[in-house]
Design a protein that fits this description.
five-stranded antiparallel β-sheet, elongated, TNP-like_RNaseH_N
């Protein structure tokens, strides 16, 4: 037995030895080493009652594979004999954090006492060949304490910038306490009993405050509401944490979610560039996106999401009153199996609710399943600019009674969540017109006499206006003019008292502008292209092309062309008068300036434009010499004329009603259209599903959350300005993981 070692216990299975030479004295009590060797070759090393090392841990203290061998006894005792106890650090170094009570330490009897401290989770064992005095845990504690003290010193004095030596103290531990590779090889990993707990990392909160102070000092342009500041603080907080332990600022999650939803591949590339320490994973962002399960019909989660979004955007009381805009989009007929809310479901069949299903059974005399060919989308548009798509149903060319049931169900659902509906805006399809006339006993004249304001069954004190989309109106007017001409294929010959109105006039004016002004910059109507003059079926659906050929620029071109042709210019009088009316309507319905009074001059201009079309209709219909067929050829279609009255008279009723219920508030004509719904359809076709112009209903459902989180919920002027929605789980207490 080596000198200084005593055998204190021995039996058939183990032998325990003790050494008291060279060990420290803490609070006047000697700390001894105890080495217990078992018959199976394993051993334990303890300082007093604390086990600091076992043979299961690969280190310099466990020769070979850690098993005890007779020839290694001397070597084992020699290495254990040289193991030193952790002495912590002097009292004046740091007194913050989770530390042991103050201890009086002596190297040997008769030596002077030192007042020192150790970490609460001190491992007692100093690494071999370490130049410091502490163990691994105490060294880490001292490193964080010094870093915190240095950051506080620099943040308190704005005139003193950290020196290179100070930054080196922050970036890496001082050489005197930084363990070397050989020192770490002594203990490859700490025993479970000495792993730092959450309480022992309490200095992290202090570090956060220090980092915030440094950001405020050296980056004063980054205010407290800046996304960059939140991202910097998040990076500091998550540095060194396991993926499951990372926490993210809501604004950081929102920004990353927008990037990820727009292009997951680009977001993944950004995460791998190393510009930032870490970003939220795609899986976490997917949980945030899918916290609302999309399904057909009225969805309570969607209504609640819409309500919470209105609160977060501070929508004023008059903004909680608005209208419902709905439109239909064709989809691919396809059955798909999905897993939602813990259930396996089949989607792709027509699903418009129990009432509509019962009506189909009564009509057809049998119950049958039918593949959906269209999807009907309902969007709420508040008078202050707030908008939100809250319901969609798979259909097969919805009929007017089915629209009636779905619409009033939607109105009732909105009222339950604090929203009021004072108008409906929709396209000019035949079923939509039938739906409108259902509220006026099926009579066109009754609708016109009431200025398209009908009784509101859910809110009797608030009349409901039925108006058709003004943007669709301009396309219909343009399409009627395209059909007008003297050719064999022309189905109309629009005739006004001032002269004929044919599409050939637009073609000749366009060609004259090109010939007279070869340079594109010098042309009178500089945006006019072949797509405007010879549109195909797809281009006929674009609102902008119709507005360009009926607006003020076109009127200016016609007047210039009329002067150029001289005496023959009188033949253009009818077309010029029509352009004078349509240009006024287009300018007023795309005007973003608010209307605050029923006496607004734009309403009077709309009324005069409608009067011009009405007088034209009255003059043609009062001519007794023409047959009914000839009269129809001279006028635009009856549907277009009814459409025009609905848009103009309906908007006037809406302004009067708004000033009556919410005096002093305003309404924006540029927002009363179906552009927002059309934008969603465009994203579904061309962005979310790989330029798939015919998605199925499953793809449509999965794309809705992405659109809501990346599009704008507050529209201040045009349809592409505002603030995107926040994830549903930001405001509602529910698990982020939808499976829980």
């Amino acid at each position: 037995m080596k000198p200084g070692w005593l055998v204190v216990a021995k039996n058939d299975s183990s032998i325990k030895t003790m050494s008291y030479v060279g060990n420290g004295i803490i609070n006047q009590q000697r700390v001894v080493k105890e080495l217990e060797v078992y018959g199976n070759g394993h051993w334990n090393l303890s300082f007093g009652v604390v086990c600091v090392l076992t043979s299961d841990q690969k280190s310099l203290l466990s020769p070979g594979d850690g098993m005890f061998r007779v020839r290694d006894v001397d070597n084992l005792l020699r290495i254990v004999d040289n193991a030193e106890m952790c002495k912590g650090w002097p009292l004046g170094e740091s007194t913050t954090g989770q530390v042991q009570p103050v201890e009086r330490f002596q190297t040997a009897e008769g030596e002077p006492e030192e007042i020192r401290q150790r970490a609460r989770a001190c491992s007692w064992l100093k690494p071999a060949r370490s130049k410091g005095t502490g163990c691994r845990v105490c060294n880490e504690h001292l490193r964080y304490a010094r870093k915190s003290a240095t950051l506080k010193a620099t943040s308190h004095d704005a005139s003193i910038a950290p020196t290179d030596a100070e930054w080196s103290l922050i970036d890496k531990a001082p050489p005197s306490i930084a363990p070397t590779d050989a020192e770490w090889s002594l203990i490859d990993k700490a025993p479970p009993s000495i792993a730092p707990t959450d309480a022992e990392w309490s200095l992290i909160d202090e570090d956060d405050a220090d980092v915030a102070a440094i950001v405020a000092k050296y980056l004063p342009q980054i205010n407290s509401q800046s996304l960059l500041r939140d991202q910097l603080l998040n990076q500091e907080q998550n540095l060194g944490r396991a993926p499951r332990g990372r926490r993210w600022n809501p604004e950081v999650v929102k920004a990353c979610l927008t990037l990820w939803a727009s292009n997951p591949r680009t977001y993944k590339k950004l995460s791998s560039l190393g510009m930032l320490v870490t970003l939220p994973s795609g899986r976490l962002l997917r949980y945030y996106k899918n916290s609302v399960h999309q399904k057909a019909g009225l969805n309570k989660d969607m209504l609640r999401w819409m309500h919470e979004e209105a609160k977060s955007k501070q929508v004023p009381p008059h903004g909680m009153t608005g209208g419902i805009v709905f439109d239909e989009m064709s989809i691919q007929s396809d059955l798909q199996i999905i897993y939602s809310e813990g259930k396996v479901k089949i989607v792709g069949l027509v699903d418009m609710g129990a009432e509509c299903s019962a009506m189909r059974v009564l009509k057809e005399g049998k119950a049958s399943a039918q593949l959906a060919t269209h999807v009907l989308l309902f969007m709420y548009q508040g008078d202050s600019g707030f908008r939100f798509p809250f319901m969609h149903v798979p259909t097969a060319e919805t009929t007017a009674p089915e629209i009636y049931v779905l619409f009033w169900k939607a109105v009732r659902g909105l009222i339950e969540w604090g929203f009021s509906v004072n108008y409906a805006c929709f396209g000019g399809a035949v079923h939509n017109r039938s739906f409108l006339k259902m509220h006026f006993n099926g009579s066109n004249s009754a609708a016109v006499s009431a200025s398209f304001a009908t009784h509101n069954a859910c809110l009797p004190h608030l009349p409901l206006v039925m108006m058709m989309d003004p943007k669709h109106l301009f396309k219909k007017i343009r399409n009627n003019i395209i059909k007008s001409g003297f050719g064999i294929n022309s189905t109309r010959l629009l005739s006004h008292q001032a002269g004929f109105i044919t599409w050939e006039m637009w073609v000749k004016a366009y060609q004259w502008d090109r010939a007279a002004n070869p340079s594109e910059v010098s042309r009178i109507h500089h945006v006019l292209t072949d797509e405007h003059i010879w549109p195909n079926n797809g281009q006929k659906m674009r609102n902008k092309l119709a507005e360009d050929v009926l607006g003020k620029e076109m009127l200016h071109l016609f007047k210039a062309y009329q002067k150029a042709v001289g005496r023959n210019g009188d033949s253009l009088n009818g077309a010029i008068q029509l352009l004078e009316a349509t240009s006024v309507l287009i300018a007023n319905f795309v005007d973003t300036r608010p209307i605050t009074s029923v006496e607004d001059y734009r309403l009077h201009c709309n009324a005069r434009a409608l009067q011009w079309f009405t007088s034209w209709e009255d003059a043609v219909m009062s001519d007794l010499q023409d047959t009914a067929i000839v009269k129809r050829r001279k006028l635009m279609s009856q549907e277009t004329r009814f459409y025009m009255k609905s848009a103009i008279l309906g908007f006037g009723s809406l302004v009067r009603q708004k000033q009556k219920t919410h005096p002093g508030t305003s309404i924006n004509a540029a927002q009363i259209n179906s552009d927002s719904v059309e934008n969603i359809f465009c994203q579904q076709r061309a962005i979310l599903h790989g330029a798939n112009d015919n998605p199925n209903y499953k793809q449509f459902m999965y794309g809705m959350n992405t659109i809501i989180l990346t599009a704008d919920t507050v529209n201040n002027s045009h349809c592409n300005t505002g603030v995107a929605a926040e994830p549903f789980s930001f405001r509602v207490q529910k698990p982020i993981n939808p499976k829980k």
